[in-house]
Amino acid sequence: MYTVRNQKVVRRLSYRSFLANRMRNLVAILAIILTTILFTTLFTVVISFNYTSQQQTMRMVGGYAHGGFKYITMEQVEQLANHSSIDSYGYSTLLAIPEDAPFNKRQVELRYGTKKAAKMYFCEPTTGRMPEKVEEIAMDTTVLSLLGIPCKLGEKVTLSYQLGDKTYEDSFTLVGFWDCDSVAQASEVWLAKDYVLEKLNGYEIGKYSNLYGTWNLDILFSNSNNIEQKLRKVAEDSGYTIDDENADNYLSYGVNWAYTSTHYENGEKTKLILGLVIGIVFIAFAGYLIIYNIFGISVMNDLHFYGLLKTIGTTKRQIKRIIRYQGILLSVIGIPIGLLLGFLLGGVFVKIIVESISSNTASITFNAWIFIGAAVFALITVLLSCSKPGRLAAKVSPIEAVRYTEGNKGNRLNKGIKKGRRGARIYRMALGNVGRSKGKTTLVILSMTLSIVLFNTLYSFTQSFSMDQFLSKFTISDYMLGSANYFQSSYRGNEDNVSETFIEAAEAQGITEQSGRVYTYNGIVEAPVTKERLKAYMMQWEANNMLESIDAAYPDQEEFTYGINLFGLDAYPLSKLQLIEGKKPTEVDKKEHPIIQIVSTNDYGQPNTDSMLYDIGDKVKLHYVDEFAWDEELDEMEELESHDVEYIVVATMMMPNVMSTRSFGYPQFALLTDAYLEDTKQEDTMLYMMDVTDDQLGKMDQFVKDYTKRIESSMDYESRKLMEEEFSGFKNMFLLVGGGITIVIALIGILNFINTIVTSIQARKHEFAVLQSIGMTGKQLKKMVIMEGLLYILIAVISAILVGSIINISILRSLESLLWFYDYSYNITAILMSMPVLLFVGAGIPILAYRKLAVNSLVERMRTVE
Amino acid sequence: MDILRTENLYKYYGKGENEVHALDGVTFSVKKGSFTAVVGTSGSGKSTLLHMLGGLDRPTSGEVFVDGKSIFSLKEEELTIFRRRKIGFIFQNYNLVPILNVYENIVLPIELDGNKVDESYVQEILTILGLEKKLNNLPNNLSGGQQQRVAIARALASKPAIILADEPTGNLDSKTSMDVMGLLKVTSEKFKQTIVMITHNEEIAQMADQIIRIEDGKIVGGERACIQ
C-alpha cells in the first residue's frame, strides 16, 4: 500500500463546495457560534464561580500563598526556601500590633516583608512602593484614615507601639499605599528591613510571645494539589518535622484553606462535576441537532454532486474528508466568535449569580481552560455532527444520485404505495411534505421541543417559588430592629443590643400596632443535662466536632451542667412561638416558675422532636453565674458569685430561628419577661419586633432606612418588604440566567427551523413550478408552505406539552421536597405563552422563503433541472 | 371553430447584440377537437411557443386566444386559474408530484380548483389508459410509460379546452412512445379533446391531424394546416 498525495485536491474540492453553499455556511456558522456560546458560558460560570469563592476565602484569610511555615528563624527561612519544589516565596516578620487609639478599632500589624510577601497578602502598594530606607513606611488607606492622614505620598506618619516592655514612637515618610480589602481581617503596615531588625535587636524573641520577631515563610508551589504533603516534604528534606509538636526540630506550618482542593468536600466536588457533565451533554445534544441537520440537508441537496464525484472515482474516504474539512472550516470561523460572546455572557451571568446569592463581588477569570475546553467541545460537536452526513454522501451510488429526489427513501418501506384518495387537498399535501423526510423533520421538531421545554421548565420552576413560604420563615413581623452585628448572626453580647434610642425613635412614629422585646442572657447560665439527651440534641446539626468536644469535656460523667441560651419574651414575640406540647406559661401560675424549652425546627417548619432535653413537668434548676474570674494558670473559670433558680418545664415550643441568636450550638430556653428580668437581673434587648398599621408601611420603611443609615449606623433592620425584594431578586436571578440560556437554545431551535423550511422550499423549486403550471395558484402554494411550517410548530408544541408535563410531574414536583420555599403546581403556561411567537415564525418563514423563490419566472423555474 | 388562435406572437430574449428572437411573428389557429403537432429542431422556438400558448410565459408582443379569451389580459393569479380550468399539460419528464399517489395526482388540478371530481369520467379515462390497478402507487414506483400515462390522465381529468404536450415521448423508448401516441390519438377522438403537441420527431408528428413547422421563430409551412 502506498499513500496517494491527494490532500490538495480533496481540500480544493472541499473548499469550492464550501464556497458554493453560502446560505448553508451562514446558518452553520451561526449554529456553531450559538453552540460555542453555550459551552463557553458554561465553562466561564463554573470556573469563575469556583474562582470567586476561592478568591473570597483567600481575601478573608489574607493571602494566596499555598501554605507556609511560621515562627521560624531567618536561617531556617533561607534553608527551607531553597527547596526545589517551591515555585516562589515571600517572607515577613511581625514587629508589633499597636493597640492604643486609634488602633483599638482595627487590628493593624507592623511588619517587614519582601515584595512577594506583600503581594501574597494582597497588601502590595498600588501607589508608590515598598519602604526601603529606615524612615520609610507604606500602609493601606484604612489605616491612613484611622490616623487622619491624607492619602498622599510624602506625608509624615507618626506611630507609637509597644515591643516587649518598651514603648517606641517614631516618625516616617509615606512611600506607598493601597486600598484595603473590605473583607480582610487585619491591616498591614510595611516598614523597612533595617528599621525592623534594629528594633528587634535586643528584644528577646519568645519571652512574651513568639509572634514578634519570628519569621513567616509563605510558599507557592507549582500547583495547589496536596499542599500539606508538599510542605512535609520541604520540612523533612531540610531535616525538620511538621508532625511531632514536641520534637526539637518541629516546624509550625499552615495550609491556606482557600484552595478548592483542600476545602471542598468530596460530595460537593462530585456534584459540581456531575452538573458540568450534564451541561456539556445537553449543549452537545442541542448543537448536534442543528449542525447535523444543516449538514444532512446540505448533503441531500448536493447528492448529485457527490454522485458525480463518485462516478469519476472519488473514494468514500475522500468524500467523508471533503465534508469534514468543511465542518472544520466553518468551526474556524464560528468558534472564535462564540468564545468571545460566550465569555462576555458568562461574565454577566457570574456577576448576576454572585451578587444575588451573596454580597460579594464576582471575579471573572480569564482562564485559558475556559477557551480550550469550550473550543474542544464545540469542535467535537461539529465533527460528530458531520460524520453521519459524511457517511451518507460517501455511501451514495452514482446512479441513484442522479435519479434522487427527496422523499424516495421513506417510501420504500411501503413499497411505493400510498392508500387514499384525499391527498390532493392542500393540507394533505402539506402533511405529506412534512413527512417526506422523517429524519430531518424529527431533528427540527426535537430541537424546537427542547427549547420550548427548557423555557417551560425554567418558568414553572421560578413560578413555583413560594413567596409566602419564604416570608413566613424569614419575617414574622413587619419590622425587626436589631444591631447590624445581630443580623449578621454575630451577636456577641450587650454591645450588640438594640439601642434604646432606636426603639424610642421607632415607637415615636406612632404607628405601632403591636411590639415587643426579645431579651437574651449575656453571661453564663447552665442547666443540668444528661449526656445522652444532650448528644441527641446536638445530633440535629450533624456537627460531629460538637459531639466530640462533649465527650472530651465530660469523659466519665453521665450528668453535668451545660451552658444554655436563655431568652426573655414579651407577649408579642411570645405569640410567634408555636406550642408543641404542654401549656403556655401564661396559663400557669407565676409562682411555679414556668419555663419554655425551645425545640428547633427544620427548613420545612417541622419541630425536631428528637432533640428535646426535658419532658413536660420536669424540674430544671438553672445555675446563673453572676460574677467570675479567669484563672490564667489553670486556664479555667472561677465562679465568684452565682445563684440558682428552679423552674418547671411547662411547654415545648417552636421558636422561629429569626427571633433567636441566629446561630446554633446551645440548647435554648425562654422565660416570660417579668420572670426573666427578676431572675437574671439583666435587661439586654437583643431584638425588637414590631407590627405597624398596614397603610403606614411606607412611612416606617423610610424612617428605618434613614435612621440606620444616618443616625445610628450600627443599627440595622429586617422588614417584610426588604425580604420580598431579596426574594424576588433571587427569583430574578434564575429568570435572567435561565432566560439567557433559553434564548440561545431557542435561537438554535428557530435557526434549525428556518434552515429546514428554507432549504426544503428551495429544493422543491421545480416541483412548485410544475404545480403552478398545472394550475396551482400562488395563493394555494403559499397556503401549503404555511401549513407545512405550522405543522412543524404544532407537532413541536404538542411534544413539548407532553415532555413538559412529564418533567413537571417528575422532576419539578420532586423539588418540593428539596427546596423548602418551593410550592409545586402543574404549569405549562410558558408553552402557551410562546405559542404566538412560534405561530408567527411558523407562518412567516415559509412566506419569506416562498417570496424569494417566486422572484424567478415560472418558465425559468421549470427549466432548472434538479 | 377555432379553439386556439395566436396573433403576431413575438418573444425576444436579451438585449443589443445578444438579442434572441425566440418567436418572430407567429400566427396560427387550431380547430376544436383536432390533434396538432408543432415540429421544429432544437432551438427553433417551439418550446417558447408552447409556454406562450399555455400562459406560462408572457410574449414581448402579440396575443393568444383560448376559447375566445385573450389570455394575456388576465392578471397572474387569474391566469393560473384560467390555466387549470382550460389547459392541460403533458411534459417530457412527466412532472408528477412525488408525494401523491396516481389517483391523487390525476385529480390534483380538479381539487385545486375546489371542484367535485367526476368519478365516472375519471374511471373511464383510467380504463382507457390502463391505470386501474396502479391507483395507489406513488410515481417513482412506475415505469416511464406508466408515468406518462398518469400525466395524460391528469391532463384529461379536468376536461380542459386544450391539452399542450411538450415532447411527451421524449424520455420513452420507441415501443412505449407509439403506445403513448396511440393513447393520445384515441383520447383526442373519443373525448373530442383538442391536443397541441410539440415534437422534433417527424414520425411521431405524422400521427397528428395537422402539422405546423417552426424554424428560427417563424412558421415555415405545414401539411393540412390552416395558415392564415
What strand order characterises the main sheet of chain B? Answer: 6-7-8-3-9-10
Number of helices of chain A: 29
Radius of gyration of chain A: 37 Å
How many discrete structural domains of chain B? 1
Mean pLDDT of chain B: 86
Largest sheet of chain B: 6 strands, mixed
Broad CATH class of chain B: Alpha Beta
Q: Biggest sheet of chain A, in brief?
A: 12 strands, mixed
Helix/strand order of chain B, N-terminal first: EEEHEEHEHHHEHEHEE
Count of individual helical segments of chain B:
7
CATH architecture descriptor of chain B? 3-Layer(aba) Sandwich
Distance between the termini of chain B: 15 Å
Low-confidence stretches of chain B: 224-228
Describe the global form of chain A.
globular
- How much β-strand is present in the residues of chain B? 25-35%
Task: Describe the protein in words.
The complex is a heterodimer of chains A (866) and B (228). By secondary structure, chain A is an alpha+beta fold. Chain A is built from 29 helices and 22 strands. Helix content of chain A is 52%, strand content 18%. In chain A, the strands form two sheets. In chain A, strands 11, 12, 13, 14, 15, 16, 17, 18, 19, 20, 21 and 22 form a twelve-stranded mixed beta sheet that branches. In chain A, strands 1, 2, 3, 4, 5, 6, 7, 8, 9 and 10 form a ten-stranded mixed beta sheet that branches. In chain A, strand 18 (619-631) and strand 19 (636-654) form a beta hairpin. The longest helix of chain A is centred in the last third of the chain and has 44 residues, at 720-763. The model of chain A is unreliable at 406-413 (pLDDT under 50). Chain B has seven helices and ten strands. Chain B has 228 residues and is an alpha/beta fold. Chain B is globular, with a radius of gyration of 17 Å.
List descriptors:
heterodimer; A: 866 residues; alpha+beta; 10-stranded mixed beta sheet; 29 helices; 22 strands; globular; B: 228 residues; alpha/beta; Rossmann fold; 6-stranded mixed beta sheet; 4-stranded antiparallel beta sheet; 7 helices; 10 strands; 33% helix; disordered C terminus
